[in-house]
Amino acid sequence: MAGAELRDAFGAPEILSSEVAYSGLVWDVVRETFRLPESEEPLTRDFVAHPGAVAVVALDADDRIMLIQQYRHPIRARDWEIPAGLLDVSGEPPHRTAARELAEEVDLAAADWHLLADQLSSPGGISETLRIYLARGLSAMAEEFDRSGEESGIVPRWVPLSEAKAAVVEGRITNATAVIGILQADLARERGFTGLRPADSPWPARAVHSREPS
């Protein structure tokens, strides 16, 4: 309706059936049949079931952002990202997961946390909901985290926020979460970091993706 508030509308339709069509090493593919009022017949869709994730824009007192370079096999590339991780600990609040991932990936703690942005990574094919936090008041952890696998090859780099923004605009940084985080952080800085949402703000997208397939 014209003039209505622009806001994503979350809420599951009538789901007639739900099953795991393929069980993978990391992700499962779920097949669901459901009804929509705009369709005369039930619809069936396959999608990657994702537990959700968080990411962190860590910004220091000199307005430098912590970026990490990491190998990602599906794209055969070492892309530039911001620290991030899955919501894979049952009962852990998302902003606590963000703090844990910041420590585990780049050995940093933060005294000041705010919500920076919410992201639907690829809503046509994956159920991932991702929340990006802004972390400031940074300090180094007393001990470095012992990393393994791809994470053992993480390359951390402090980058001036203006330089990171230029890399986004020029197409040198293309990771979607990093792009959103960098641009949102730059906008927040322009606004003097006022009007940011609390780190524990409600997350409507999570409610409709927390149900396990039957």
UniProtKB/TrEMBL annotation:
Report keywords, A-Z: Hydrolase
Which residue intervals define the domain Nudix hydrolase in the entry?
48-181
Q: From which domain of life does this come?
A: Bacteria
Q: Name one GO molecular function term.
A: hydrolase activity
PROSITE patterns on file: NUDIX
What is the name listed in the Swiss-Prot or TrEMBL entry for this protein? Answer: NUDIX hydrolase
